């Protein structure tokens, strides 16, 4: 039985070629009608030169942050939120006053019914909306999205 395994035998491979298995170091050349010959498969997501050869969905600096937008956006929100429009008080004044009131009893957190939460949400919502529109407007104008 051992003698039959030690003798070189031939195998009929795919595509009708006859291959000898006497030298195990060499791979038998297999071919098929289903495989393309000589073409290596390439990953379409791997683009040469893009982000060092890595595939990315967004630019590396997708935020494109600019300190001009942050500065002008903060000023652009502080100015209108400081107008005394709510019972003769401004939104910024009401928010800062509520911070002071809540800090007066510091270890205890603000109650859920406290006006602090309303002023906190309104003030920050206005700030973030102003910063978002500022980013859109500033970057849009710098990159010629808005053609006049």
Automatic annotation (TrEMBL):
The keyword Membrane applies. InterPro entries: PSI_PsaO. The keyword Membrane applies. Keywords: Membrane, Transmembrane, Transmembrane helix. The chain crosses the membrane at residues 116-138. It comes from the Eukaryota. This is Photosystem I subunit O. It comes from Hibiscus syriacus (Rose of Sharon).
């Amino acid at each position: 039985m051992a003698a039959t395994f030690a003798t070189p035998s031939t195998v009929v491979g795919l595509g009708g070629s006859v291959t000898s298995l006497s030298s195990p170091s060499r791979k038998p050349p297999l071919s098929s009608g289903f495989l393309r010959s000589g073409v290596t498969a390439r990953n379409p997501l791997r683009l040469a030169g893009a982000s060092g050869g890595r595939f990315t969905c967004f630019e590396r600096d997708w935020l494109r942050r600019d300190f001009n937008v942050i500065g002008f956006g903060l000023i652009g929100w502080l100015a209108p939120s400081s107008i005394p429009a709510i019972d003769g008080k401004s939104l910024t004044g009401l928010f800062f006053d509520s911070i002071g009131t809540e800090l007066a009893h510091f270890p205890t957190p603000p109650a859920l019914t406290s006006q602090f939460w309303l002023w906190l949400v309104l003030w920050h919502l206005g700030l973030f909306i102003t910063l978002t529109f500022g980013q859109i407007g500033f970057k849009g104008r710098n990159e010629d999205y808005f053609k006049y």
